[in-house]
Amino acid sequence: MTASNTEDVVEVLNPAGASPVVLVCEHASSFIPPELQDLGLNRNDRLSHAAWDPGALAVAQQMAKRLDAKLVASRISRLVYDCNRPPDAPDAMPARSELVVVPGNAELDETARQSRTMAYYHPFRETLARTLSVTAAQGATPVLVTVHSFTPVYHGSPRAVEIGILHDSDTRLADAMLEAAQASELNVQRNEPYGPEHGVTHTLKQHGLSNGYANVMLEIRNDLIGTEIQQRKMGDTLCDWLLTALKRIEQEGQP
Prior knowledge:
The protein has helices at about 45, 55-65, 110-135, 170-180, 200-210, 230-250; strands at about 10-15, 20-25, 70-75, 95, 100, 145-150, 155, 155-160, 165, 190, 215-220. It is an alpha/beta fold. The protein has a single domain (about 5-250), classed as Zn-dependent exopeptidases (Aminopeptidase). The longest helix is centred in the middle third of the chain and has 28 residues, at about 110-135.
């Protein structure tokens, strides 16, 4: 299994962006390549949150526009390969996602897993690494921001959190954004509805912590970003918090 070229599986939007912020949307698309025969899923499951993060790309695009930032986005479903997971993680190619069983991932042998890793994960990882290097070469230390969405109900339980600001061991940017968000009426929480213990900070660790770049993962409840107006408004709100946070970090002289 091979992709015809890198552009088929990952894209860089606004590649000439001048901001030090590099935005990432690992779950931007629900697309399943035809040769995978829809992974055996019905149409509803292929379009559900199990397959992608609804609204996340549109929010990230608004942020990229507002900040003049580069945006790296996957062009394939996370059920084909979850680009926020390392190749050895069971949920990189999940056989089940919450209530959705994925027949096409049920009995993947090592050869099939390696083939998907080469076709989808490595091009994404290399494109993001290259984009960060280009940004660094422009003279500013990159800032890594990943954008995701999550469901209002999980395994039958409603979620009160509306915005999650997630981090791994580097808390600089998350701390500052949480402070900036305090005046908001939104329910904003740290490392919710997921945290590092759930394996969700792979991109942050691989590309942020390893390089010493400030980094944060943003999770948005997807009922808040179902329309274009909501998506633009959310993108602007997150940019406001991010810019305030970056200013605070700069003033405090944090590396």
